[in-house]
Amino acid sequence: MCLDLSSSHCVPPMVQVYSEASASQLKKVKKIWTREQYKQADKDKKEVEDQERREKNLEEAKKIKIELDKSLPDPISVKVAGAREYHNKRVVARGWVHRLRRQGRAMMFVVLRDGTGLLQCVLTDKLCQTYDALVLSTESTLKIYGVVTPVPGGKNAPGGVELVADYWEIVGTAPPGGAENLVNEESLVDVQLDQRHMMLRGEKLTRIFKMRSVISQCFRDHYFSRGYFEVTPPTLVKTQVEGGSTLFKLDYFGDEAFLTQSSQLYLETCLPSMGDVFCI
To answer: 62, 131 in Cβ contact below 8 A?
Structure first.
């Protein structure tokens, strides 16, 4: 900042001059403010009405009860991936709610996941009007009874089949909002890492882990077909291997230990007794 205004190199600071708003401008701004206040009041009123309506619907839903129909054939207990093999047969499937979609008051679609695959289940009428149905969220665990049928023409579902439910029950409820309240693909990396156990339930990471399993099995098949035996050497060691500049050191119950970088020593030890060996 220049304090000497007489200097030729000193440029005086810019001074902002404010003028009083005209009456028409004030009137216009006041109208805008009033309109926004009305909008906010209407929004608050609508939120209160929606909350009251939801509480009323929940209270009415508590009166709706569903029961297992004993006159129907005994269900066949199936894994989700095996449901497609039981066309037009009554089964019972168990799993987690992977996706959830409500279509009006009389229909709800639940995509069930049990680790073997995905199965679309269709709940209609009273089945989707109970209290449990209204508060159901993703990652809740369910047991659903029904008949496996092909998906109607022009529609899509995992495996090309869906389970038309005749009864269902909750095994365990998830917190309100489900997994989406904890983490999603747009969450920050540190959040995804903190909630890794939830991220692993997503389809993308599930495929990655399954592919890793398949690739590992291919390596094993290759060596087994050639007469090798698999051994599992220690992962934690007390000594460094050659070129150990990148060793990962840790404290193991008061002793210094390292993550091993080579299984060569242990494989050489097994060679005389086991012949050709390998480890992954």
So the answer is: yes
